[in-house]
Amino acid sequence: MSKIAPDLSNLPSPKLEKHSRRPSLIWLMPFLALAISAGVVWNNYASKGPLITITFKSASGIVAGTTEVRIRDLRVGVVEAVGFSEGMEAVEAQIRLDKNIARYVDTEAEFWIVEPKVTARGVSGIGTLLSGVYIAANWDGKDGVRADRFVALDVPPLASFGEEGTRIVLKARAGGQLAAGAPVLTSGIEVGRIGQPKLSSSGTTVTMDAFILKPYDARLTTNTRFWDASGLSFNLGAQGIALKVDSLAALLEGGVTFGTPVTGGGPVADGHVFDVFASQSVARTKAFEADASPDISASILLDTDVNGLGLDTIVRFRGVKVGGVEDLVGIENVVKGPVKLRVDLRLSSKRLGLPGGLSSDKVRALLDSRVANGLRVRVSAEGLFGQTVVLELVNLPSQAKAEITLDPDGRIMLPTAPAAVPDADTGVNGLVTRISNLPIEELMTAATQALNNVSKLTGTAESVLTADGVDRIPQTIDRTLQEVRALVTAIRDGGAIENLNATLRSADSALKSVDSAASSLPALANRLNAAADGLQSVVSGYDSDSRFYTDIRGVLRDISSTAESFRSLARSIERKPNSLLLGR
Amino acid sequence: MDISGHQHDLITARDAGMVACTSCGLVASPDVESCPRCHARMQSRIDGSIQRVLAWLLAGLILYVPANIYPMLRTTQMFKEQDSTIVGGVITLIHHHAYAIGAIIFIASVLIPVGKFIVIAYLAVLLSRPHTKDPHRLHILHAAVEFIGRWSMIDVFVVAILVALVQFDVLASIKPGLAAACFALSVVFTMLSAQAFDPRLIWDVTDKGTPK
Amino acid sequence: MIYDPTCIACPHCDVVYRLSAARMVTRTRCLRCGYQLTLGKSEAIARVVGLALTSTILMGIVLFAPFLYLNAGPFDSSASVVDVVLGFATGIMVPLSLAVLIFIIVVPVARSLLLIYALAPLLAGHANATGAATALRWAFVLKPWAMAEIFMVGVAVALVKIGGMATVHTGTAFWAFVLLVVVNTFQDTFMCRNTLWTSLATNTT
């Protein structure tokens, strides 16, 4: 191409393309975009539920924007912000609730944090280790008074949503072992749980709510008695020794058991208050004496102080508890003499068979007539070794006539009778007395004399007497009896309760040898046999079928299966790192 | 000769003693340095474009090496860390039978960048001196390189999204590796390299194929 | 004469043509290399401005709505575009984070705003805004650096990668982004250089 100045006047036109005319619909686009934006924004705001504020003791893992509020594990809201309350005393969380359920949030709504927990009753909330803690909520589906400020519960509420049963109130002596969440048992099965114990202002009693599930709440009557089932109970009574453990949870967390020893009670409504007694036996005795409120005051005068008589001494009439000692006062004798002891008693008229609600004059008159018929008060003893002192009201018609007197303060003074020898029918004490009362020496003398006569008669007395064993029988018996006496005295005097098993076993074998040695004394032998059997059965350990063992076995099984599943989880992760997310 | 094979009396701005604005198409006298319409720099043929092309290309090439050596992603699952490089990621995807995705990543992160290096280098070398190749083909090559270059950024965005989504503390979390930054820079540099070309150089050839 | 306004040169192959004003309304192509030279005046401008506006509005949704939800067993995770950007924001990764932010958000928005700034006065019949020419030029320059559609493909790939492990839900921002990509692509087809430049240059109202 030559380099002449190009002619720009003849430039070609570029290629033309047909272009159809149509109105510019393009403006629809931004309009649409605006509409969409507005829709999104409006939807966002309109679908937002209300904001509520919940106060927590600690933030324990609550994360703004992530932590959810769930009812029955279904998400109903999310935490928007977490911060301190005024004065930095507590943590406040602002929570946005889903719109559709938010209208049911009323003042009765409950909130609590669900986090991993290890208790004696098992492990809960493990899922929150991975997914983060969440706030559980509980409210019913009915409209109530709206509220938007709440305080979270420290522990999950007693009754989960939908659980039916009865709520009652339990009162116990402070110092017990009961913890929130501890089980309520009956006949060995768990039927409910107790809530957070609260100490009374005086510090002596502890009150707590308890929730008994249906259908077990039907077993509750107004005569139902609750007692502490925590830990072990060790009982030494007329029946022997009993070691009981109710359940592992009760052992560690404490628990209450209930039973209804007395029939005829009425139905129980929500909020009924029950006392929690220290043990089953206490509960039982209290059940029986519940009707008998002590309403009669009387006193007796004792010449000497009785070892073991104190403020917890009870008064019995025909074996039934009719009252107790209210006070012990030393009375100085006007005339020179030893100090007398005045024991003030409170007795139940009902138990004594007297009509209730009588005036004091009438009471006095009735008691007067009883005393005229021989009613006396005397010191007695009960218990396996006679260690418990009781005051007994007994009818002793053979006594010298006496009557009720009034002391200078107007107190009814009941006449006393000499202290009673404990019933020799029961107890080692009776045994020892009985044994020591045995006319063994006479028997021996008689036996020897008889044998002498026999030898005189036969002339072979010597040979008989010196025959192996025959000679030694009386001495063996005598020696064994002495041992037994010494043993029992040692027990009584030394109070060696700790070595009781060994002691009893040796007593048992001692009695056995007595038995074998004195087999020629049938009546006594039978008695001794029976005593030996009784002692032996008591010496065995606790029942291996008890719930305690079952619980321990169950826990061990849980632990080992958990360990196993952790092992297999770790193995599968190692093999396929995606398996956790894939779920395979 | 044009695409459809017709002969025209076509004249270039340079031949006409004019200079054209690459930004807005304005034709002006050669002494004009700044386009009066769009204020872009006006040069008949951009100075040193080839040099710039090669410079950017080298930068991109250098950065491509660590982009392949270092990991793109670091996945932590229950205290086990797993690094994955570009190629490693492709292999893993194929291993898991995700062939389509593996192919996309392979094309975007391996084929395209490597292809770009080769094509740009070729074009640069070719255009640094008068050439005799068919300008249509070269034109297509250049357009392709310019168009496709940006698509290599797919992998970088994938890493970004994965890092943003998979943050589950102990159970699984993904962190970006050094290679992500290196690769992104490499792509940017090769894009700049392709843009630095003055495509008008391709067409500086006579109709008969003899260089001007 | 400094320049001839009726001349048009093909930026790709340098051939010069004469384009009469009447011809400005239709699409024209270079005879040699087929490059589209003009689109058609007012329609082009209207389209460009309209779509740029749409693009900006959509970007607003994209920024402030959630993008993706991930659900893997007990885990929930959600990411907005800002989360994606910030995922890199530590140490050596900061340039990467900036890069992602720039390519996905800043450049597309900037382009849209520049176009609106430069061309809206024309539609409304006003004089050119100050620096309108520079604005328009930068809108063209930034075109290859707007990588919104590439981000979309990246999202698709990431979804497939995670989809095997967990359930992924798409949020509002996701769809807004898809629309954004479509709108931008559409818009680019109307960005006829010659038309826009001559319109700008001849706006003497």
Could you provide a short overview of the structure?
The complex is a heterotrimer of chains A (584), B (212) and C (205). Chain A has 584 residues and is α+β, with helices and mostly antiparallel strands. Chain A has five domains: 51-151, no CATH class; 165-289, no CATH class; 296-413, no CATH class; 427-539, no CATH class; 547-582.
Protein architecture, described:
The complex is a heterotrimer of chains A (584), B (212) and C (205). Chain A is of the alpha+beta class and 584 residues long. Chain A has 15 helices and 28 strands. Chain A has a 7-stranded mixed beta sheet with strand order 6-9-3-4-5-2-10. Chain A has a 7-stranded mixed barrel with strand order 11-15-13-12-19-16-20. The two termini of chain A are 76 Å apart. Chain B has 212 residues and is an alpha+beta fold. Chain B folds into 2 domains: 1-44; 46-201, Butyryl-CoA Dehydrogenase, subunit A, domain 3 (Up-down Bundle). Chain B has helices at 49-69, 86-95, 99-127, 135-148, 154-165, 178-196, and strands at 19-20, 27-28, 73-77, 80-84, 167-168, 172-176. In chain B, strands 4-3-6-5 form a 4-stranded antiparallel beta sheet. In chain B, strands 1-2 form a two-stranded antiparallel sheet. In chain B, helix 1 runs antiparallel to helix 6. Mean pLDDT of chain B is 82; it is low at 206-212. With 205 residues, chain C is α+β, with helices and mostly antiparallel strands. Chain C folds into 2 domains: 1-38, no CATH class; 41-192, Butyryl-CoA Dehydrogenase, subunit A, domain 3 (Up-down Bundle). Helix content of chain C is 56%, strand content 13%. Chain C has a 3-stranded antiparallel beta sheet. In chain C, strand 1 and strand 2 form a beta hairpin. In chain C, helix 1 (41-64) runs antiparallel to helix 3 and helix 3 (94-124) packs across helix 4. Chains in contact: A-B, A-C, B-C. At the B-C interface, strand 2, helix 3, helix 5, strand 5 and helix 6 of B face strand 1, strand 5, strand 6, helix 2 and helix 3 of C. Strand 1 of chain A pairs antiparallel with strand 3 (27-29) of chain C, so a sheet runs across the interface.
